[in-house]
Amino acid sequence: MGIVTPDQLEKMVRVARKYKIETLKITTGQHLKMLGADQEDIPMIMEELGGSLPGTPHLKIGLRNLQACVGSPFCSFATADTREMGMLLQKAFVNRVFPGKVKVAVSGCISNCCEGYVRDLGIFAKKSGWTLIFGGNAAGRPRIGDVIADKLSAEQVILLAEKCLGYYCDNAKKEERAGHMVARIGLDDLLQAIK
Hints:
By secondary structure, this protein is of the alpha/beta class. It has helices at about 5-20, 40-50, 80-95, 155-170, 180-185, 185-195, and strands at about 25, 30-35, 65-70, 105, 120-125, 130-135, 145-150. Helix content is about 35%, strand content about 20%.
């Protein structure tokens, strides 16, 4: 969810300096890019950072990207704890295999800083509860996601997300994004299936 501690940042800087990497980039996909790293150093860099090299390329396991704004108590506009919601979603879907990329956004208010309307699964908070959006996409064929339900509790969000992503798994073509699937099949079929 883009959360790092000062100790983790210091570790990244130490490793970058050790391997003479002059530029670090944290992407919108929440990946750390060490630009200019020598190819032969990458396994050692990953080990020192506590990660590992990816296994099979293009394996669609778990969430591709889970973004969350800082939420409450750090933002005066936020009406909910986005970190807690993000952790619930991560726990629910971390080992799930999907037909294609699944990007998730969790925002603590209606400003929707994480752009939930253009993510496969978008969630944002209001004083009345969580709103769940499904089927957004910001890529080459953009699509604004559909509001599936609002005034949800955290538990209801997880259950409804399970249903939406289950429908996606059952109906999407290989590597088809959720938004493209909804555009192809139609929203009514999805809504009927997740009742």
